[in-house]
UniProtKB/TrEMBL annotation:
Catalytic residue list: 180
Gene Ontology process terms (BP): proteolysis
Binding site for Zn(2+): 179, 183, 189
Record InterPro entries: Astacin-like_dom, MetalloPept_cat_dom_sf, Peptidase_M12A, Peptidase_Metallo
Protein name, per record: Metalloendopeptidase
Annotated keywords: Hydrolase, Metal-binding, Metalloprotease, Protease, Signal, Zinc
């Protein structure tokens, strides 16, 4: 009797475990019924339709105007100097005022649990950034519309009309939804940023035939000075478009990186930092322009310096990296919209308080966020820093 009662639950748990073991791109690929982008061998040969646009890298939809801009940039880039850029489009693609009106997901299309997942993904972006999601009114010509379409996909930035975020049957998990919302906010994939070759190696002989162009770099994407992020929710896994699915010829060299890349269910610190810079959150909030944050810290919408945590935390006097002093607006809230990091401690403490300590160290945080790591690790910093940090795709 009990076996019969619990079999469906056990089956569901197995399915969830399988889904969670897959990287974001693997889950998106499984959800996509048709991959229009696989037929294109280059941007000039891509198929453009007036009603949809150009679909690339499984889930990104570019409008005709955006794609023509990309083609022009690819043609002229070799004769122009490069800037420090990242994975978000130019300001013309930002949502005005950082406000993203949306149509409430239909209960005829999505279950109650799935609607909660959508709302939680929007809430996470809104909590850590100055992006605001509100239900659209008749006056909002630009709005997000969640549909059950051909797999998972989203337009890039605001496209000046009602724009779809497709959440097919396999896409209705918070991590994937947050990923697609990132596209709608203006993000492209992390591994497509112009400086990616300094951080990952693309093994072209292991790419599925006809998909080589899926690894094109977008040289027009602004970095805003934010460092490359293996933990980004916008980063695909190491087997993206792999011919044989094997990690060895195309994947990261270290076991740590295999667990990190493409395995996000929530925003990373640098995802959050980028949105705050892209949408000028500190300027919108009227923060003191003289506030300087230590290390990788940034000024958030409450005029508080935020540093790497879980995913962010208020900076403290022990955070170093720039040598500059920092301060926050008097009376500013420091914890309302943030989740404190694990194992926060005074510099100099030598305790292993976070199970991800080893991963943090191998990703270079001993250098970029030394004071925070000093409170997290019990291992020798220099020894960890000397370990390999090269990742192969």
């Amino acid at each position: 009797m009990f076996r019969g009662d619990f079999t469906p639950l056990l089956f569901l748990c197995v399915l969830l475990a399988v889904a969670m073991s897959q990287t974001i791109d693997e889950r998106i690929a499984m959800a996509n019924v048709q991959e229009d982008e696989s037929t294109a061998t280059g941007p000039e040969n891509a198929t453009v339709t007036e009603d949809i646009g150009v679909r690339r890298e499984l889930d990104m939809i570019f409008t005709k105007e955006q794609w023509e801009f990309i083609i022009r940039q690819n043609r002229t880039n070799s004769t122009q100097g490069t800037r420090n850029r990242r994975k978000a489009l130019r300001p013309m693609n930002r949502w005005p005022g950082g406000v993203l009106p949306y149509e409430r997901p239909s209960g005829r299309v999505f279950s109650g649990r799935e609607i909660v997942q959508i709302e939680e993904a929007m809430k996470e972006w809104q909590t850590y950034t100055c992006l605001q999601f509100r239900q659209a009114t008749s006056r909002d010509s630009n709005r997000l519309h969640f549909i059950s379409g051909d797999g998972c996909y989203s337009y890039i930035g605001v496209v000046k009309r009602r724009q779809e975020i497709s959440l097919g049957r396999g896409c209705r998990h918070k991590g994937i939804i947050a990923h697609e919302i990132g596209h709608a906010a203006g993000y492209v994939h992390e591994q497509s940023r112009p400086d990616r070759d300094r951080h990952v190696t693309i093994v072209y002989e292991n790419i599925q035939r006809g998909n080589e162009d899926q690894f094109r770099k977008y040289r027009w994407a602004d970095t805003f000075g934010v460092a490359y992020d293996y933990r980004s929710i916008m980063h695909y896994g190491a087997r993206d478009f792999s011919r044989n699915g094997d990690y060895k010829p195309s994947g990261p060299r270290t076991p740590v990186s295999r667990r990190v890349i493409g395995n996000r269910e929530s925003l990373s610190f640098r995802d959050i930092k980028l949105a705050n810079l892209l949408y000028e959150c500190r300027e919108t909030a009227g923060c003191d322009p003289n506030i300087k944050c230590p290390g990788e810290g940034f000024v958030d919408k409450s005029c508080t310096c935020m540093c790497p945590g879980n995913p962010v935390r208020p900076c403290n006097s022990g955070d170093t990296g720039t040598g500059s002093r920092f301060r926050a607006r008097a009376g500013a809230a420091t914890g309302t919209d943030s989740v404190p990091g694990k194992g926060q401690s005074e510099p100099g403490a030598c305790t292993d308080r976070d199970p991800l300590c080893g991963q943090y160290a191998r990703l270079g945080h001993c250098t970029t966020n030394g004071a925070f790591m000093a409170g997290q690790l019990q291992q020798d910093m220099q020894k960890l820093q000397s370990s390999t940090r090269e990742y192969r795709f």
